[in-house]
Design a protein that fits this description.
heterodimer; A: 107 residues; mainly beta; Immunoglobulin-like; 5-stranded mixed β-sheet; elongated; B: 277 residues; mainly alpha; Cytochrome Bc1 Complex, Chain D, domain 2; 2 domains; 3-stranded mixed β-sheet; 41% helix
């Protein structure tokens, strides 16, 4: 992705607290249905998978299809249990993976 | 007091009143007066929510990238924006003392070198070629719209300023040309900007709610574009919708119109980068 995705995850949380994680990717999500000015089809190129791992274990994932709009906004809830390193991955049709990591301390 | 004194007194009073009138901005001249409304007020609650939360504004990742670019040296001069302007939100404006705060609210500005108005996009491109000795971004490219968004963001919350309706203002000629454009019918549908944005704002055309066509939110993430775009992109779209040949982004016609539109939105709070339908 040309622009880094945004991730909103608090830097610290209390144990047992429900946290809303927000992510925003910057991607055209070309469906493959559109045609260019000269009539030739614009090839499909979308982000087809999003996943979030905590210390290497996958805690959330989503498969995306061409119906998802450009610049996908994905939000989910997690329960803060222990401090750890969260890794967010976006994979596109070409297999290219964009990664953002952020830590959260749980007290 | 004799007649002579009264006459002399009246002459001085008259002169100072004229002077004040020349420097003042006439409130009645703005067609909306107190009822000037930002595009935000015409948007649905969902669209407004996207703009209110900076995180969910889908144009922001482009602004993030621009914020990184701000600090990166570029061009043959190997200068970064920060080298001259300091941090983008530095109130002192770095080495040259030119802060970004307020710039968006004052533009288009008068460019002494070309004796024409210049808008934010063109000013950024000018800085790139003249000061950084780099190749400028293309007008509607993502990096430029991101950088314009970054600069526009620094004027958030400030009211739009314009005195271009004043005949003594350097931008008056451009303002006049913009005013003529605004009221000129064009295209297959033979419509002028005023038909939607002055005569029918608040009304619905087919399925669209018409706004006043203000520019305080630009550059904007337009849901229709699924991307962030400049004012000139929208002006071109407007012209295409009435089946008129659009002018090029950065053209004199659109910069003059932009100068005029800024005046029509005087007092509106700057919102860039905004989210619109």
């Amino acid at each position: 992705m040309a622009n880094q995705p945004r991730v909103k995850l608090p830097k610290s949380a209390k144990a047992g607290e429900m946290i809303q994680v927000k992510t925003l990717a910057s991607h055209d999500m070309e469906t493959g249905n559109r045609k260019g000015k000269d009539g030739t089809p614009i090839p499909r190129l979308i982000l087809n998978k999003f996943s979030c791992t905590l210390d290497g274990n996958e805690i959330f994932s989503a498969d995306m299809h061409p119906a998802v709009s450009a610049n996908p906004y994905i939000t989910f809830y997690i329960k803060a249990e222990k401090s750890g390193s969260y890794v967010f991955n976006w994979t596109d049709d070409n297999g290219e993976v964009t990664t953002v990591s952020q830590d959260m301390a749980v007290s | 007091m004799n007649m002579k004194t009264i006459t002399a007194f009246a002459a001085i009073l008259g002169a100072s009143v004229t002077l004040i009138a020349q420097n003042a901005v006439s409130a009645e001249a703005n067609p909306y007066g107190k009822n000037v409304r930002t595009g935000y007020s015409y948007a649905t609650p969902e669209t407004r929510a996207m703009q209110d939360d900076d995180f969910s504004n889908p144009g922001m990742p482009l602004v993030d990238t621009a914020a990184k670019m701000w600090n990166e040296p570029a061009g043959e001069a190997k200068k970064s924006c920060a080298d001259c302007h300091g941090a983008v939100d530095d109130p002192k404006g770095g080495k040259l003392g030119i802060p970004m705060r307020g710039v968006g609210a004052k533009y288009p500005a008068y460019d002494e070198a070309t004796k024409k108005p210049i808008n934010l996009e063109l000013r950024i491109m000018k800085c790139q070629t003249e000061n950084q000795k780099a190749e400028a971004f293309k007008y509607e490219s993502k990096p430029l719209v991101g950088m314009t968004g970054l600069v526009a963001m620094q004027s958030r919350g400030m009211p739009r300023l314009s005195t271009a309706d004043n005949p003594n203002d350097k931008l008056h000629a451009a303002w006049k040309a913009g005013e003529e454009f605004y009221y000129q019918r064009r295209g297959q549908l033979d419509m002028a900007c005023k038909h939607c944005h002055e005569d029918n704002h608040g009304n619905i055309i087919r399925a669209e709610l018409l706004s006043q066509g203000q520019t305080n939110g630009f550059p904007t993430y337009r849901l229709k574009w699924q991307g962030m775009g400049s004012l000139h992109k929208r002006l071109g779209g407007c012209n295409k919708e009435i089946r008129a040949e659009p002018y090029k982004s950065g053209s004199d016609e659109y910069v003059n119109l932009e100068t005029y539109l800024a005046w029509r939105g005087r007092g509106l709070v700057m919102e860039g980068p905004s989210v619109r339908k």
